[in-house]
User: What shape does this take?
Amino acid sequence: MAEAKPDDHGATGSAQGATEPDPGSGASGRPPEKPAKQAAKQERSAKQGKPARSAKQSFDTVRSAVATVVWVVAVLAALVLAAGALVVALDFNARNGVVEFLTETADRINLLGELKTFEPEGRSRDAVQDARTKEVLVNWGICAVAYLVGGKILDKLIRP
Assistant: This one.
């Protein structure tokens, strides 16, 4: 019968189920050794630094960034127009600062102007509000779509 020998930690074990630790597995507390080729490659890359990007790669990166900015601006303009139309359609308090900002900004960025005008069907406040709501929804809605379509076209033209 095989005699059990104490290991480094003082425990005894039988020789039947025991396996030797893999020298490259780090079981001894040390990290596994790297092959010579990998170590040489890391040393070379550390000395040389990162390879420089080509001019085309840099130019393409700038074009992508510009295309992204153009698209984001178009989406933000469409969102302001849609939010402005919403606050007008829901008849929010026009003296509120946020509502005033949205309606004035939407009116300023409406580059298409008045495409369609609606006449009030009477002189009541509701008739005037209905006509204003229709004008805003049609004009600002078309302008928002134009911003999105134009922004996406510019994005595709600019992006590499």
